[in-house]
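## tool: complex_structure
## caller: assistant
## args:
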Amino acid sequence: MTPSEIPSDSVAIIDSSVLFAMGGPSNDKYQALERFVRRQNISVKIPDQVAEELGESPTQYEYQRDRLRAAQDAGWLDRGEIDFTIPNVSKIVDKTRTRMAKLAASDVSEDDIEKTDTILAGLAYQYAMENQDVSVLVSDRLAQRAMADVLSSTTVSEYLVVIEGRELLQKLIGE
Amino acid sequence: MSTDSRLPVDNPEERFLDLLTYAELLNTPQLARLYIHILKNGPVDVDTIKTDLEMAHSTAYKYIGQLEEMDLCVRQEDERPSTVTAEPIRLFIHTDEDGLVASPALVDAIGRQLDTDDIRVFVDRQGVPKLAAALHYAIRIRNGELTQRTAATKLDVHPVEAMTVFSALEDVIDDAATYDPYLSELLQ
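## result:
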């Protein structure tokens, strides 16, 4: 995976696993990602559910919310709202849950799959349906595999790519 | 923990000593950090250790002496300056139902409380056993066995708290893969 897999003028959906790995505004990884998305004119989205999850976290994790707020205030990240009225969006979410459970270890059932994990794939599909190039940035091997499997079997697969976010950050600070 | 008294044990005293040694490392972040530094960098001389870890002279000697007493490190006095080396240790914890292995990676995570806020906040709130469990899940996440959010539910902490510590433990796993042979056995 190289940063060049993310096209200019595209949408990048980011999960907490990458948000936390990039650190705060003074961190090299945070700055490298900000430079990259500005240079490439990439629109970075965080699903509403992920933002809400951050909002209701224990007060000791206020600093994680601050990182999100800093990126929002700087204008390079905003929230993305999934729209279940768009055809097939809920089907993609359901398929992702089923795929995650199938790929997971035997002590994980479909009921153990958290909805927020599956929303990322549904939101990516939603943007791709608007003929936009979309990358999903996650740092979670199972989630990455399941989303890649499901999204690659859609009619808009040529618009979609799932990327290991920590590796991307590492490559961006090396540039 | 293995408490099966039916099995002959060559040296039961040494086994219990190993248990206490590991517990001492888990309860003393400064000692844990020093042990991992020596394990990663040994043979390393004491002055270098003091500089790298910003430790006072007396503190460095006190903890190195303690690690020597615990048989966790060896000082080469015939070299000038004298150097210290350490060996990776592991603890098998078995019950009737299941078992797991604690290896130097966990000791590393304990030591990082001193300089990694994401781990310090977690231990302050949740304690060392929960951190050890978080590392167990972080390894399973790395192996693609479950997602971070599913692991958060199993760990019984808020997803943001769990994903914060998982992210910090990813760094531990990356580093430990280079000096912890027992961790390598767990990674797929």
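## assistant note: DSSP finds eight helices and five strands in chain A. Chain A touches chain B through 30 residues (CB under 8 Å). Handing back to user.
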